[in-house]
Specification:
The protein is mainly alpha-helical. Helices cover 76% and strands 6% of the residues. Helix 2 packs parallel to helix 5. About 5% of the residues have low confidence.
Length: 173
């Protein structure tokens, strides 16, 4: 009888442990295509428009410099065979000055635009990650992965939250 109680207790314990281990393997996973959310967000378009407006004047100045440089280079190409040595040197100096000016103004502008874009996009990225976290909590997901980081996704068992996250981001201002 003692042996039977021990056997029953061991069987019961084993059954309970197997049930607990099976429950611990239940893992709810979802994926999000973050790049798609970025592209669909109205905030990304607004950022682009803001940056265009913010740097428009300086870009126009650079475009004028480029245009002037092209004009002078074409002029040099056309007229150099008939120019005197002093005229050629003066035009070469002018072209070199335009190139230097273009480089001196263009490179800092490009760096400044990139820095501002990174600053604005990091705000949008934080907003997207907040939306992902909110969706994960609302859907009681144990894990949410970036779709681009997954080699294979079983669409039957893994939910795609991209649309829901994009909606949340679009509603956030």
């Amino acid at each position: 009888m003692n042996k039977m109680i021990k056997t029953t207790a061991m069987t019961l314990l084993a059954t309970l442990l197997m049930g607990a281990s099976a429950a611990s393997f239940a893992h709810k996973v979802a994926v999000v295509n973050v790049q798609q959310v970025f592209q669909q967000s109205p905030q990304a378009a607004a950022i682009e428009a803001t940056l265009q407006a913010e740097f428009q004047e300086r870009r126009q100045e650079l475009e004028k410099l480029q245009s002037d440089m092209r004009f002078e280079m074409e002029k040099y190409k056309r007229e150099s065979p008939t120019m005197g040595k002093a005229q050629k040197e003066a035009l070469e100096t002018k072209i070199a000055g335009l190139q230097k000016s273009l480089q001196e103004k263009g490179q800092p502008l490009q760096q400044e635009v990139q820095a501002r874009k990174n600053q604005e996009m990091s705000k949008l990225q934080a907003l997207i990650f907040q939306a992902i976290e909110a969706e994960a909590k609302a859907g009681k997901y144990d894990e949410v992965k970036a779709a681009a980081a997954s080699l294979y996704i079983n669409e039957k068992t893994v939910d795609d939250l991209t649309g829901k996250v994009a909606e949340r981001v679009a509603k956030a201002k």
